[in-house]
Design brief:
The protein is an alpha+beta fold. Helices cover 33% and strands 39% of the residues. The chain has two helices and five strands; from the N terminus they run H-E-E-E-H-E-E. Strands 1-2-3-4-5 form a five-stranded mixed beta sheet, with helices on both faces. A hairpin with a 2-residue loop joins strand 1 and strand 2.
Amino acid sequence: MVGHNLFYGNKGEDIATKFLEKKGYKILERNYRRIGTEIDIIARDKSEIVFVEVKSRNSRKFGNASEAVTTYKMKNIIQTATAYIMEKSLYDIQVRFDIIEVYFNEKEINHIISAFMLS
């Protein structure tokens, strides 16, 4: 089942990447890994760096995909984003944390801008 989930995750990330590019975002990184965690997509939206978590589901039957982004997951993303900012010396730039939900059966993408904040 892990391979199955990995396939859907990668497919969802590919769809989310194309979606962001069409909106004018510049993709900087995909699957950025540091300190044992990962950020699916790092992009630039005008003057902001956007850290994007992608959640893919076949449908909304069992709730919204974004509900899988727990407080623990948010903390991991923020830690990894901090590592990226330090690595790239991006100290004077606005950052944002978005979630993109991809629903395959509905062929729907839901982009939640500023889904969570630095705490």
